[in-house]
Amino acid sequence: MNRTWRQLLVVGPALAVLVLAAVLATRHGGSGGSSEARPERPSVPLVSPPAPTRGSAGPTFGAEVARPTSTAAQSKLWFASGSWWGALYAPAAGEWRIHWFEWSTQRWRDTGTPLDERTDARIDALWDGDRLVVASAGRQEDNARSGLRVARYRFDDARRRWSLDAGFPVTVVPNGVTDPTIGRDTTGALWVAYVAGATPFVARSSSSDARWGPPLALPGADAGRAEQAALATFGTSVGLMWTELAEDAVHVAVHDDGAPVADWRSDAVDVPGRAGGADPADSPVPDGAANSLVLRGVPAAEGRDATLVAAVQTLPKSGTPRNILGPGLVLLQGGTGGTWRTSRVASMADAPGSPVLTVDGAAARVSVATVSRDNPRAMFVKSADLDDLVFPSGPGTQLLLGRSPASRLLDPTSTKQALGAESGLLVLVADDGRSEYVSGAAALGGPEPGTPSPGDEQAPPTSGAVELVAEDFQSGAVGAALDPLWRLRSDDPSGRTSVVAAGGDGALAGRVTTGFGGSSTQVCRSFGVVTGDLSTNVDVMLDGAQVGGAVLTGVRGDREVAAVRVSGRGRIGWWQGAEQVQADLEAQPGRWYRLTTSVHVATKTWDFVLFDRSNGAVLASAAGLGWRDARDTSVDDVCFESPDGVGAGLVLDNLEVQR
After folding, report:
1. Among residues 346, 366, 401, which one ends one of the domains?
2. Percentage of the residues of the chain whose pLDDT score is greater than 70
3. 3-class DSSP state of 144
4. pLDDT tens across 326-349, in order?
């Protein structure tokens, strides 16, 4: 037996079988439509596949969040700076966070960097080689809290720390949507696709990642019929695939990079057996939701154009007779015009579940992994050449087993990226029976799972300041309302917020303006639940003749716990326990202040320092102050309030919140 085969057979987690294709495929030949002769493949000795292994145990995801690795169209993992990273839910913190995967131990580590505080968030992650971009949304379409957000993170190689970029996240859609997916085209523009009101939509960034044009109902799609949508970039195009109710087909639209946002070419691809609306008795989705769909781009190579590939479940509609020999999972390839190729990945008898799809463009191979619906403890994998798309019969090679008889594996996920020796392969799946993540890894010619990798040489820090909010308002436009992430107090319906100019150099700031009759207006920004220390920094200016009644910075849990205010007499004041203290310092309209506030949950105390922004002079400070209301055990909002008086306002800029 040659050395390559011996290496594959001793890979730790049995996911190594995914890479057999890369070893076997030594040609880099043409596409399926090419008339060129295919190079001969070397003869390979027949060997037994490696025995399935238990996956590596991951952290728990608790009882609050359901199906944390769904959906198939989305990617929860990415590879950057020599390491794998993932969007995993941290139940103790009550939020989604960036986690690091240590290759040598096959364990996930929480970096503490938050991604989304919503338990029902569905997250899609894109690493573009320079920045991490995350699209996330809740599912409640009538709930503003569920809005579609796009956030961007930078990576500090020296510190191995992810940090939120200023001006993010931004709200692209103010209400909930179904399972957004994100991609970046060759012009640098970001795209998101999603379903809302059973209609597929797209939106594209404009001039920067933080500024977006209005969402567009996809031309050529029937309104009110879509189940799901998935987006992928390939070559110099953006592809979008969606499914509609009760159709034995999928719909595809292609957009050329740089063309007007509404210019799409649409097509439909027949998929026998894909009737839509899966039978709850057969589907891994408890409520019988739509068949799973995943879309990926295949990069161009010598003799082969860039294309799209998609894995599509074909479970029958509820109540429809089922042919066990019919297709249960198919793979489609196309996207550049002409005929789409269809290949059966698995039959109904194979009982394939929701798929995860990976592409190795250099080796011209595609692999599909699924969890068995007949045995939800087991995951299987199949691979095929891109030129013929012939998958082996049967359920596939068993990939990994759940860690106990109670295991119920759901929704495998991986990355959008091309894989290779540096990255290896990583798949993450949720074990619903044990409420924990499970992962499996394989070497692709690089370090074996369980051995040190270059990315393990410096572990990300587990302490130090983590940015929760970094807002400079530069993503807005003068006169526009602040992002919906800023919430007006419910009893301030007539107050308003807006983006305003803050200097002659194009700088922008936010303004909170009084409501009807000159009543003060409060606006708050959530940063997620914090149970330790918190610090805020902000530039504030009283705008207008009125100054009394303003809140320069307030921190809240269920109730206000700390605040620096301006009294009705125009003096700077703050809370010391339930008593308000006033300094012999009058607030000046038109003057920029810099205010730093620190809140300590464990001791229920807080500190502040008020500076003159123009010269850095300290104007007022206090330390060890008691909370205004000590009943809270955490904090989650930072708030600001305009002064009383018609037309009065509070201007704020350069807000930073850290824990």
Report:
1. 401
2. 87
3. helix
4. 788 999 999 877 789 999 999 888
CA 427 to chain centre: 16
Q: Is the peptide bond before 355 cis (omega within 30 degrees of 0)?
A: no
- Is residue 315 domain-shared with residue 391, that is, in the same domain? yes
Same domain, 496 and 387: no
**Residue 69 contacts residue 58 (beta carbons within 8 Å):** no
- For range 53-82, the mean pLDDT: 88
Reported as a pLDDT band with limits 50, 70 and 90, residue 364 is: confident
Asked if residue 342 belongs to a domain, the reply is yes
Residue 274: pLDDT band with limits 50, 70, 90: low
Q: Any residues with CB less than 8 A from the CB of 68 and at least 6 apart, and which? A: 61, 88, 89, 430, 437
Q: Which residue's structure tokens are 């295991």?
A: 407
Q: Domain check: are 491 and 638 in the same one?
A: yes
Residue 390 and residue 298 share a domain: yes
Which whole number is the average pLDDT over 78-92? 96
- 175 versus 5: the higher-pLDDT residue is 175
> 515 lies in a domain?
yes
Whether 5 is in a domain gets the answer no
- Closest by Cα among 17, 15, 24 to 365: 24
Q: How many domains, in total, are found in the chain?
A: 2
Tell me which DSSP letter residue 395 carries.
Answer: S
3-class secondary structure, 289: coil
Starting at the edge strand that comes first in sequence, how are the strands of the sheet with 378-385 ordered? Answer: 53-54, 397-401, 378-385, 365-372, 352-360
Residue from 108, 77, 78, 106 nearest 14 by CA = 106
More confident residue, 49 or 146: 146
Question: 441: closest CA among 2, 13, 3, 1?
Answer: 13
Give me the pLDDT at residue 54, please: 54
Query: Does 395 share its domain with 510?
Result: no
d(CA 393, CA 391): 6
| 508 and 637 inside one domain | yes
- State how far the Cα of 195 lies from the Cα of 242, in Å rounded to an integer: 9
- Return the number of other C-beta atoms located less than 10 Å from residue 462's C-beta: 10
Tokens of 238: 């953006």
CATH number at residue 524: 2.60.120.200
10 Å CB burial of residue 408 (0-12, 13-18, 19+) is middle
- pTM comes to 0.85
**Which secondary structure element, helix H or strand E, spans residue 90, and what is its range?**
strand 83-90
Contacts of 221 (CB under 8 A, 6+ apart): 199, 200, 242, 244, 251, 253, 266
Instruction: Look at residue 207 and tell me if it is in a domain.
Output: no
Q: Which amino acid is at 550?
A: A
Range of the domain at 392: 291-401
Rounded-to-10 torsion of CA 234, 239, 245, 246: -60
Q: Which of 350, 372, 401 is the last residue of a domain?
A: 401
Is the preceding omega at residue 336 within 30 degrees of 0, hence cis? no
Q: How far apart are CA 225 and CA 320, in angstroms?
A: 19
